[in-house]
């Protein structure tokens, strides 16, 4: 459950929605996620509040001991992504959509407390900040992903300075640059021609994401290269439909999506 608020799961979810459902709305939420990551890193570094002691952990998760605890990144990210999807897809007036998003945010948040990597106050504030952030981004971006990524870039630069060379800071900086460049191509992306093409975009896209993430792990100590790779990652997510759409293969046009 806690992984549903993690970077990898949320990245894959948003990428799949972008490739197969609605590009502009999904790209908008991706911009929220990247901008929110940068803001959160700055807040964590500024507050510099510790996590619970190691003996409070339910299971030994050394990776979860890194960094500061307040506010909770998982709770914040869950609120930004799931709440952002409800807003971007115009489902805010539907009780079921609100209940589903709210349940996911609550469960992700509580999982962090149960695991012993956050205090209750960390997740409450994280989730509340995430909801407030979505409301603010909705008003400022007016549904334009390019504006969202411009805000992400403006937030990621101070986050990089404040938080240092943390991987999340590099992801925020590279992701905002890649998103700003890739979002320029959104109006020109070709529509899916068939279900087969949608499946091919999904396979190519997931493979591309896995490849870039693997390369990023291999060069984790080279900060400039990581920024470039994360820029390529986000831009590549946006351009995958364009790459597949250029293939002139008969079966791709045989069935409508």
From TrEMBL:
Pfam families listed in its UniProt record: PAP2
Superkingdom per UniProt: Archaea
InterPro entries: PAP2/HPO, PAP2/HPO_sf
Keywords: Membrane, Transmembrane, Transmembrane helix
TM region(s), chain numbering: 6-21, 28-48, 123-140, 147-163, 198-219, 225-244
Domain Phosphatidic acid phosphatase type 2/haloperoxidase: 26-138
Stored SUPFAM superfamilies: Acid phosphatase/Vanadium-dependent haloperoxidase
Listed name of the protein: Phosphoesterase PA-phosphatase
Organism of derivation: Natrinema saccharevitans
Source lineage: Archaea, Methanobacteriati, Methanobacteriota, Stenosarchaea group, Halobacteria
């Amino acid at each position: 459950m806690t992984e549903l608020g993690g970077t990898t799961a949320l990245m894959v979810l948003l990428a799949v929605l972008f490739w197969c459902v609605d590009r502009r709305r999904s790209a908008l939420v991706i911009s929220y996620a990247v901008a929110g990551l940068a803001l959160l890193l700055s807040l964590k570094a500024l507050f510099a509040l510790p996590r619970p002691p190691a003996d409070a952990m339910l299971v030994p998760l050394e990776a979860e001991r890194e960094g500061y605890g307040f506010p909770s990144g998982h709770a914040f990210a869950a609120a930004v992504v799931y709440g952002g999807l409800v807003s971007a897809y115009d489902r805010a007036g539907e009780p079921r959509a609100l209940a589903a998003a709210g349940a996911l945010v609550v469960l992700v948040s509580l999982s962090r407390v149960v695991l012993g990597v956050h205090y209750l106050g960390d997740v409450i504030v994280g989730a509340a900040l995430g909801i407030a952030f979505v409301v603010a981004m909705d008003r400022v971006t007016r549904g334009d992903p390019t504006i969202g990524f411009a805000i992400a870039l403006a937030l990621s630069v101070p986050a990089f300075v404040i938080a240092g060379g943390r991987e999340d800071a590099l992801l925020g900086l590279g992701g905002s640059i890649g998103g700003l460049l890739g979002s320029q191509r959104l109006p020109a992306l070709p529509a899916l021609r068939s279900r087969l093409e949608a499946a091919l975009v999904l396979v190519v896209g997931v493979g591309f994401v896995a490849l870039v993430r693997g390369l990023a792990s291999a060069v984790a100590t080279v900060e400039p290269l990581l920024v470039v790779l994360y820029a390529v990652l986000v831009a590549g997510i946006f351009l995958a439909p364009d790459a597949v759409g250029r293939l002139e293969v008969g079966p791709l046009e045989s069935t409508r999506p």
